[in-house]
Write a structure and sequence with these properties.
It is a single chain. This protein has 13 helices and 2 strands. The longest helix is centred in the N-terminal third of the chain and has 39 residues, at 2-40. The termini are far apart. The protein is mostly helical. The protein is globular and about 50 Å long. Strands 1-2 form a two-stranded antiparallel ribbon.
Length: 264
């Protein structure tokens, strides 16, 4: 009898040990996954909007304005102006090779934007993929978001500031997201005496661009700013955002004011 009880107890122990080991393994694995798995997710930026089916006006032109305008602009003589749809569409395969293939090491020419430049560092993996997909999907023109917004009519100032903030990404590569600019290279927009002194001048600079020397907060800057292919409402929105940010004067710019300056 005692022998039977001892053997029965031994069998239960032999069956229990594997179960206990499996349970401990699950606990250890679960804790390791909780510590290592999710931690890798926030390190990658969220996917850009419309990555799979982007259009030029809705998705690609804003990226070009943010990362390509220092070279590929309306004033360029020897470099294609990628801010123009027809030009960008005709050159789209070379755009893909420079922005995607060279970056992946499968094209012999230098990647664009130039490596380690502010524009290159600001361009995310998802945005590069968006440009690649735009090219491979046929380079569709699409409709600019501002055109759809214009049909809605007048918008509250807070909404216009929010739209202007998104458009400001085209300025942030040079003037920085904080508006502080780059010392001795690109002037600040934050607390800028040059900006706050003359609203009409600021409008004209966005419409027509600016070359030559400017003095901002007592510091001289010699650089060039290309004109941006923005609608009157877009220019009004981005300037309203800038004037209501970075410690500036809080002015509002309207599309009618931009239209008036453009006609001159």
């Amino acid at each position: 009898m005692l022998t039977f009880l001892f053997l029965n107890k031994s069998r239960r122990i032999r069956w229990a040990l594997p179960c206990l080991s499996a349970a401990l393994a699950c606990i250890v694995f679960g804790e390791a996954w909780a510590q290592s798995g999710p931690a890798a997710t926030p390190a990658s930026p969220p996917p850009a909007a419309n990555t799979q089916n982007p259009t030029y006006l809705g998705d690609i032109q804003p990226l070009f304005m943010a990362s390509c305008t220092r070279c590929h602009n309306q004033q360029s003589r020897f470099i294609y102006n990628w801010l123009d749809y027809k030009t960008a569409h005709a050159d789209r395969w070379e755009i893909k090779r420079r922005i995607w293939d060279s970056w992946k090491g499968s094209y012999y020419k230098e990647a664009m934007p130039v490596a380690n430049s502010p524009e290159s560092l600001a361009l995310t993996d998802e945005q590069r993929l968006m440009i690649k997909n735009w090219v491979e999907n046929g380079g569709l023109e699409g409709v600019a978001p501002a055109q759809a917004q214009a049909q809605v009519g007048a918008q509250p100032q807070d909404d216009r500031i929010a739209i202007g903030k998104r458009l400001f990404t085209a300025c942030a590569a040079c003037h920085q997201p904080s508006g502080q600019g780059v010392p001795n290279v690109f002037p600040p927009l934050a607390g800028s005496d040059f900006l706050n002194a003359n609203k009409s001048r600021a409008i004209n600079i966005i419409i027509h661009g600016k070359q030559g020397e400017v003095v901002v907060n007592g510091v001289k800057y010699t650089n060039s700013m290309p004109p941006f292919p923005l609608s009157d409402q877009d220019i009004a929105n981005v300037l309203t955002y800038v004037y209501n940010s970075f410690g500036n004067s809080g002015l509002e710019v309207t599309a009618d004011e931009v239209k008036a300056q453009r006609s001159q």
